[in-house]
Amino acid sequence: MTTHAKNTRQVEVGGKTYTAQYEPLWWQEQGLSYTASGYGKSIPTAMTVKVPADNGTIRKYRIYVAQYGNAGTAYIKRGKTPKGRTFRADNIVHSY
User: Fold this and answer.
1) How many structural domains compose the chain?
2) Mean pLDDT of 45-74
3) 96 and 79 in contact (C-beta within 8 Å)?
4) Read out DSSP for 22-33?
5) What percentage of the chain carries pLDDT values higher than 90?
6) Rounded to an integer, what is the distance from CA 26 to the centroid of its chain?
7) Mean pLDDT throughout 45-55?
8) Domain span holding position 12
9) For 84-92, which contacts have Cβ atoms below 8 Å and span 24 or more sequence positions?
10) Region 71-88: what's the mean pLDDT?
11) CB atoms within 10 A of CB 32
């Protein structure tokens, strides 16, 4: 996939600015919604961002949204435990 300027946006994660890229999932390309209502606590967006992982390597993360009502909070999931149940969510403070 070729990335153009219109398919990117600047996001702030943990006080630093990174470039997010438009990379939709298969069901997003078909115009489908993750939930029937469009609301939920962990809805994947069509955007990904490359940020340093906990071990210092650069890793691509999907941006998720907790959407209830008219406002949502964007975040990335980081730091899975060996059982994969918990994570540290880094809120995306600004998107411009």
Assistant:
1) 1
2) 87
3) no
4) E---HHHHTT--
5) 24
6) 16
7) 86
8) 5-95
9) 90/13, 90/14, 90/51, 91/13, 92/11, 92/12, 92/13, 92/63
10) 66
11) 9
Please state, rounded to an integer, the average pLDDT across all residues of the chain: 79
Q: Which of 20, 16, 27 is nearest to 6 (CA)?
A: 20
What is the C-alpha separation between 40 and 16, in angstroms, rounded?
Answer: 27
Report how far residue 39's alpha carbon sits from residue 16's, in angstroms, rounded to the nearest whole number. Answer: 28
62: its two tokens: 């999907």
User: Which residue, chain included where needed, has tokens 């540290």?
Assistant: 88
Which residue type is seen at 74?
A
Cβ-count burial 68-88 (b if 16+ within 10 Å, e if not): eeeebebbbbbeeeeeeeeee
Looking at residue 38, its amino acid is: G
